[in-house]
Amino acid sequence: MTTTFLPLPTELPTAATTSVGDYPTYTAAQQAVDYLSDHGFPVQHATIVGTAFPQVSHIR
Which ranges in 1-60 belong to alpha helices (H)? Predict the structure, then answer.
């Protein structure tokens, strides 16, 4: 797994955040969330953040 360091956001999140992975594509990130969900990890507050083309998906 490769770690990419990004500039700090202009607004800090209001809740604690933890990164659980860095994926090459949005589809790969979705598959990771599906895997976690299928194995009992509570993903209802998970977020996928894209950096190549800025995109944020909140999992609900």
Answer: 26-38
Measured distance CA(20)–CA(46) in Å, rounded:
10
Spell out the long-range contacts of 22-31 with Cβ–Cβ below 8 A and sequence spacing 24 or more: 26/50, 26/55, 26/57
Neighbours of 43 (CB within 10 A): 17
The reported pTM is: 0.58
Average pLDDT over residues 51-57: 65
d(CA 3, CA 59): 23
Helices then strands (H, E): number in the chain?
Answer: 1, 2
Model confidence over 19-37: pLDDT tens digits?
878 888 888 888 988 998 9
